Every structure is written in structure tokens, then in C-alpha cells.
Amino acid sequence: AGDVGKECCREIWLAFRRASIGEEITWQKARIFERGNIEEDRLLDLLRIVGLEVWGQQDRVRAVGGHLRGKIDGRTIGLPEASATEHIVECKSAKDESFKEVRKKGVKEGKPEHYATFQFYMHATGVDRVLYMMTNKNDEDLHIERVAYDAEFALRLVARIERIVSAPEPPGRLCTKPDDFRGRFCRQKEVCWGIRKPRAHCRSCLHSTPLLDGNAGWDCARWAKPLSLDEQAEGCSAHLFIPKMLAGYEMLAADPEAETITYRRPDGSTWVDGAEEAA
Predict the structure, then answer these.
(1) How confident is the model at residue 23 (pLDDT cuts 50, 70, 90)?
(2) Measured CA angle at 200 (ends 199, 206), to 5 deg
């Protein structure tokens, strides 16, 4: 759910398909995540201190057949502005520059990715108000904002994610070149531009399809069976890349009997996907 506000549909698709090498969680990143959890607890405690009831921390929300999922930070009731109205609580912390942007413009314009995430949370839970709380990491200042549910925005958002999840091939790029500033921090950049091949597993295989009628299920047409999470990660010897995932590769031939596809690489050499040496 934290990625639903990303502007590039291709980035979301490649992340959903787990195309890139997984992010390495160093001890420093682990401490950053821990700091976020600590800050969340601090903000929720502030609500309790002033007499608000708080519950539902880490309640799960799901949509799009279970493929779109997330956890809310909490729920609260008893705000002076609307004492009988339940609110979802969204807790964030930011450096001074980002904090000031949100304070100046509001979360919808200052942090549109946060806005998109909690609009989905409201859509999935039926709660029509959010209490958005952000801490300034530099000086402990607070920004608190009540935001209403925007049904049209949320419906469009969920429909967009459903289209992305259902797409058999990667959508078009937002960036126009590899060094486009908009993709500077994109974790899918190397796979998107063909600098690195996607990971070989079920989600990058042309035989697999995400199912929209269950709990984040996947189906394999090659073996005519549902795929467990472990099977999805492992893949099998019959794996064939979704051709459009191989950016810069030109498909030359396909052999249905041998279950192979021949490509011309960007450097001009040929490569046979599905051959024993390609496994």
C-alpha cells in the first residue's frame, strides 16, 4: 500500500513482479525502520495523553484479490473537532525540508504518496476520516491534519492498481531516458532499462498469472496448479521470462516443443531462454 501513490505504473508493476534484486537490509536501514516504529508509538501516545481512545494498531487491509495490502497505524475517536467520528491514524516522520513542504501545502500536495496510501486505507476500512501526524526529525515539531475520504480518488487508485496487477506485460515508462531525474531513486531502474536481467522466478515467468478472486493467489499454466509463496520465489526449470521484461532484447524465434525463446541481446549476441545452459 505504501507504493500505490508512485507516479510510474511500470515501477509498480516491476516491484509487484519482484523483478529486481531484493533490497539489502543493513544494520543502518534496520535502525531507520526501528526509528519509524518508535516514532509511531510516540505519536499514538500523544493522542492517549490528551484523552483520545486509540486502537487497531497494525490492522491489515486488503484489496485487488489480496495483492494490494497494508497495515494501518491505528484508529482513534474523541477528537475535539469531531468527538464522535472515528479516524484512521497515519503516523510519519520526515526531515526538515519535507516537513516544511507538508506544513506549507498540506499532505495532498506536499506528500502525495502518503495521501494516496491513506485514501486506500479509508476505502478498504469504510472509515471516512484520517488523522495525519508528521514529526519533524530535526526539531520535533508536529504537523497534524484531518483529511476526508475522497471516494472518486480512491476508486480510481484501486482501479489503477488492479489494471497494473492484471497486466501481462510491463506498462510504459514514466522516464524518457536512464538518467531521467524522475527515476534517480527507482529501485527498478536497472531492470527497467535492461542494465540487469530480471530475477528468474514464477512472478517473472510468462506461464504465471495473478488471480483476483482469492487471497493474493497465483496460477501456473505450465503445470496447471496454484503457486504457493515458496514456489513463487523458487521458480522451476520450465521458467521463461515475460519477453517485454527483457528491455533491449529482440525476440528472434520461439520453439513451442522445446519450450525455448531465442533473443538477440543488446550487444548483438544471441541467447536462448529455456535452454539448459540458460537456467
Answers:
(1) confident
(2) 115
